[in-house]
Design brief:
heterodimer; A: about 100 residues; alpha/beta; two-stranded parallel sheet; about 15% strand; globular; B: about 240 residues; alpha+beta; 7-stranded antiparallel beta sheet; two-stranded antiparallel ribbon; 9 helices; about 40% helix
């Protein structure tokens, strides 16, 4: 499954909207097979923040571990947020 | 004929100052009135007043957080809830997107503003002492963005998880350096650390005051926290880029 982050908005910046995004998307995730991987694509996104990411990406990482794959991005806020989430939660995202 | 004009008493209400102050500003040139005749009544254009307010957004925000009695800010700067703030964040993005000078750190700058504003709402939800919501203004030409709230402040929110904290300076230090949150047991609290990381590595400076302490963050400068005389209610963030 590929999740295109731009479909949630071009500025992803609050905990509340991160939480809502996860809740809205959960039915799609719950219908996945046990082996399926989730690819996160940040293309087309303008702004990303650790608060939004903590509600969405950290939650997905807890559930899927390395089956959650973040596609590399050249957006500064995406990269800085991912770095912060890894440090704050003591986790390592699978980035390709 | 001057259109969209306000009389001096209406303009004073608009700016939340006295008529006497407006007269003085007119006389000393700080904010000139519009007159049809030299000795005629003083009038002010609405757009003129809005521009004046934007130009002084930092001092307005500071005054707003210092006031003992809370009043809602002018609607130009007032975000009553997080959805209003999000909408204005999109406007800021649009206003800054034309500036090629900041292209390399544009997304980081907007994310810092978003984190600070979101922090105000997240940490004060259901606990605002008087005015609900935040002050949010920016002057793209002067490259300054200001956010303020009359919330509980960093010390009060952190004391819930760190009861030993007893002053604003230590609270700011913890907030910007430790992964901890005033909303425990939820594992939150990385927003301000993120902001520190971004400001220390990009041409974005931040002055962040809570209560009687202020932290200054800037690329190439060691984290500095100082006590300030003018104690404010809540938090005041001034971002320059």
């Amino acid at each position: 499954m590929i999740i295109e982050m731009k479909k949630f908005g071009s500025i992803l910046s609050s905990r509340q909207s991160g939480k809502e995004a996860l809740a809205a998307f959960s039915p799609n995730i719950n219908s996945m097979s046990n082996e399926e991987k989730i690819y996160i694509n940040f293309d087309g996104l303008d702004v990303f923040s650790p608060s939004w990411g903590d509600e969405f990406l950290t939650a997905l990482h807890k559930k899927f571990g390395d089956r959650l794959i973040l596609k590399g991005s050249n957006n500064g806020s995406v990269n800085a947020s991912i770095k912060m989430l890894e440090e704050a939660n003591n986790i390592k995202f699978n980035i390709q | 004929m001057i259109t969209n004009r306000l009389k001096i008493n209406e303009a004073a209400d608009f700016l939340n100052i006295s008529v006497g102050t407006l007269r003085r500003w007119d006389d000393n040139g700080k904010l000139k009135s519009l007159r049809e005749k030299e000795e005629g009544h003083r009038y002010y254009g609405i757009s003129q007043l809005e521009e004046f307010q934007l130009a002084s957004c930092v001092s307005l925000a500071r005054k707003w957080t210092k006031n003992k009695i809370g009043v809602k800010p002018n609607s130009l700067f007032y975000c009553s809830d997080s959805s209003v703030f999000q909408g204005r964040l999109y406007k800021l993005r649009a206003a800054l997107s034309k500036n090629q000078e900041i292209e390399s750190f544009f997304s980081l700058l907007i994310s810092v503003v978003g984190e600070i504003g979101d922090n105000s709402f997240a940490h004060n939800l259901g606990n605002w002492p008087d005015i609900i919501g935040i002050f949010f203004a920016y002057d793209v030409k002067k490259k300054v963005i200001v956010l303020a709230d009359r919330g509980q402040g960093v010390l009060a929110t952190l004391k819930r998880v760190k009861p030993d904290l007893d002053n604003d300076s230590d609270a700011l230090h913890v907030a910007f350096t430790e992964v901890i949150s005033g909303r425990a047991p939820e594992s939150r609290g990385n927003g301000l650390k993120y902001i520190r990381e971004v400001t220390e590595n990009n041409p974005i400076s931040l002055s962040f005051q809570s209560g009687g302490a202020e932290i200054n963050l800037k690329k190439g400068r060691v984290l500095k926290i100082k006590k300030v005389k003018d104690i404010i209610r809540g938090c005041l963030a001034i971002i320059k880029f």
